[in-house]
Amino acid sequence: MFSHIMVGANDVNASKIFYDAILGELGHEPGVIDEKGRCFYFTDTGIFSISKPINGEKACHGNGSTIGFAASSPEQADAWQAAGVANGGAACEDAPGVREGPVGKLYLAYLRDPSGNKVCALHRVG
Question: In this protein, which residues make up the domain named Glyoxalase/fosfomycin resistance/dioxygenase (predicted)?
Answer without folding.
Answer: 3-120
